[in-house]
Amino acid sequence: MAQAVNDKVKDFKEKCKKEAEHIVLEVFPEKVKELDDLLHSDMFSLKRISSIHHDVNIPVPDPALFNDTEEPTSKKRRIDSEKNHLDISGSLIVGLPNGVSPSNPKICEIIEKLKPSIMELLESSNQVKMWITYLIPRIEDGNNFGVSIQEDTLAEARQVESETATFLDQMTRYFIHRGKLISKVAKYPHVADYRQSIRELDEKEFITLRLVCCELRNQYATLHDIIIKNINKIRIPRSSNVEQLY
């Protein structure tokens, strides 16, 4: 029973090694080319930044006009619509007159385009980590130059994985921040600065996503470069370990 389990673990390790080498030698160069083409496509053209904005679908209401004996229109509206209000920061907000205030579809399109590459790099860097870890020989005195190369490459793969994960967090923070600004526009529709802040945020996100695309390309290229340059030492860190590794 124990031997059967050990054989399965051994087969799993060998499979992981083969898949990781295929990823490094074949997939990484393809992803570098794909992301470089995407970065230079119309989707990420800096000329597009002026048209990246999208209407928040919250009209500016007419100014409330009332005399000293008349109750303010805004107060009447809040009382009449009490059953359909949203409570944000302790203030009542009447439901939006035009319905939903949508996300920026142009930004969403870019995010959906980049997400698969982010997820793929996360998975690939993790697989490369496991591959190198399985190739590290047992601890011995001396002849550790190849092992130090393995450890440096392993550290690079870990850093790539960590930095790539932050891209997903950044996308989430954008939607949260934009939603809060939309809420401000809903509460204070006459304040132009809140509307402008959404435009500025969308422009900033466009530039950030362009940088994300650039970083993804660079991370694929860097990880591929460092492994290819040292692949012999990564595969066989010590000449005395040839029989152990193969």
From TrEMBL:
GO aspect biological process, one term: regulation of G1/S transition of mitotic cell cycle
Keywords: Proteasome
Region (Disordered): 62-81
Record Pfam families: PA28_C, PA28_N
One GO cellular component, as annotated: proteasome activator complex
GO MF annotation terms: endopeptidase activator activity
Transmembrane segment boundaries: none
Domain of life: Eukaryota
Domain Proteasome activator PA28 C-terminal: 102-243
Domain Proteasome activator PA28 N-terminal: 5-63
InterPro entries: PA28_C, PA28_C_sf, PA28_N_sf, Proteasome_activ_PA28, Proteasome_activ_PA28_N, Proteasome_activ_sf
PANTHER family referenced in this protein's UniProt entry, alphabetically: LD45860P (PTHR10660:SF2), PROTEASOME REGULATOR PA28 (PTHR10660)
Family note: Belongs to the PA28 family.
Name this protein carries in UniProt: Proteasome activator complex subunit 3
Natural source organism: Lingula anatina (Brachiopod)
Designated gene of the protein: LOC106150573
